[in-house]
Amino acid sequence: QVQLVESGGGLVQAGGSLRLSCAASDHTFSMHTMGWFRQAPGKERDLIAAISWSRDNTYYADSAKGRFTISRDNFKKTMYLQMNSLKPEDTAVYYCAADQRPYSGISTSRADYRYWGQGTQVTVSS
Fold this sequence. Notes:
By secondary structure, the chain is mostly beta strands. It contains no helices and eleven strands. Helices cover 0% and strands 52% of the residues.
């Protein structure tokens, strides 16, 4: 079972940047497609970016395109989300998650992501 721990959240002004990290405890990290989700108060938890296990493919929600970059280092068992040009509407709890299917393509279905971190708060002030 993959255990995930996010870090890097915080308070930032609009237009600023943050880099989130997601560290995995298990060597099977490299077998799993990974995703970043976010959940604002009163809203659904939505996928904003994902990266395949091989790093060959990425997915971005429209809200993230051009501003966020997802990456991973399988040797370090860590995934990253570089967030630039942050907006107040980016305020949310950000979660990393691992697709339960080894060596799978990118899924945009939350149901396929079985392993979750505890979340890290990102607050963007205007």
